[in-house]
Amino acid sequence: MPDAANSPGARPTLRDVAQRAGVSAMTVTRVLREDSRVSAATRERVLASVAELGYRPNTVARSLRLGRGSGLVGLVVTNLANPFYSRLALGVDSVVGPHGLKTVIGNTRQSVEHERDLVADLVGRRVDGIVVVPAGGDQRHLAQAAAQGVPVVCASRPPVGFPADHVLVDDHGGARDATERLLALGHRRIGFLGPPASVHTSVERLRGYRETLAAAGVAADERYVRQGPVDVAAAEAAAGELLALAEPPTALFCSNNRNTIGAFRAVSRAGLTTALAGFDDFELADMLGLPLSVQSYDSDELGSEAGRLLLDRLRGGARDTPPRRVVLPTRAIQYGTPRSLR
């Protein structure tokens, strides 16, 4: 009968290692658990067999048998095409990775239904915890996961209808700062580009924009507001609509990096000198050749803060503490010489 460990594509088992080393399966298990009762000679023989066969223990199955978690942390985001989320993922992994936890990423495509399915799948796979950028206001599935003992941390957007740790950016304050900078340059017809109204960051940044205009005595013109674009192409089309108005805005405030890039393309195609202010810095922003100010923050830090909050819950150190809220500040960065109307 052929050796299963040598069959093409076969994954070596614990029994294969035991047979190769001439010991029992229990002895192999004890060696892998670093049991001090196993002799040095036996340990050396077993580890040599492990290396020769390329054996890797099925940690998920073992954890399930022991009634423990899987050693996995779920990260649920809305748009993997946006580099912001890759930086967020790096931040989470930089904190949980050194503690033996692996990060598994799921993409919801800004759909609550997809998010619900993803979270249910992660809970079914016994993840130790979940970091999520909620796709919308219906978060009953997140509340259910938390009620089942899976710690949930929200990033970039707050929990709705249930208590949970969360890390946010100062969306409102950053939007006020960006709008104030455009007003200081003399602009009064300022447009707004942002994701759908169901997105917390879009709502808060639009609120900051409107409040700042009102404080300056400038009437907000709803013709200049576009909420909805979630990718560069849609943002370019929306900006093009604004620029084609009989009396177009002289400046645009774009509430995320996808909208800023889309607006830049629209302005460049139209050959206009429309001033741009954005939220979220992005690579090559300094190479666009167009004056641009952005409200920047560290998206890695957003992820690492979320990872720290989750790790605290997993360790039990924050078991009796109420939900914690962390808000990261923004800072303005100016690329090129700003265009003033004064």
Automatic annotation (TrEMBL):
Keywords: DNA-binding, Transcription, Transcription regulation
SUPFAM superfamilies registered for this protein in UniProt: lambda repressor-like DNA-binding domains, Periplasmic binding protein-like I
Superkingdom as given in the UniProt entry: Bacteria
Alphabetized GO MF terms: DNA-binding transcription factor activity; transcription cis-regulatory region binding
Transcription listed as a keyword: yes
Signal peptide annotation: none
Record domain HTH lacI-type: where: 12-66
Coiled coil: none
PANTHER family, per the entry: HTH-TYPE TRANSCRIPTIONAL REGULATOR GALS, LACI-RELATED TRANSCRIPTIONAL REPRESSOR
Name used for this protein in its record: LacI family transcriptional regulator
Native source organism of the sequence: Streptomyces triticirhizae
Lineage of source species: Bacteria, Bacillati, Actinomycetota, Actinomycetes, Kitasatosporales
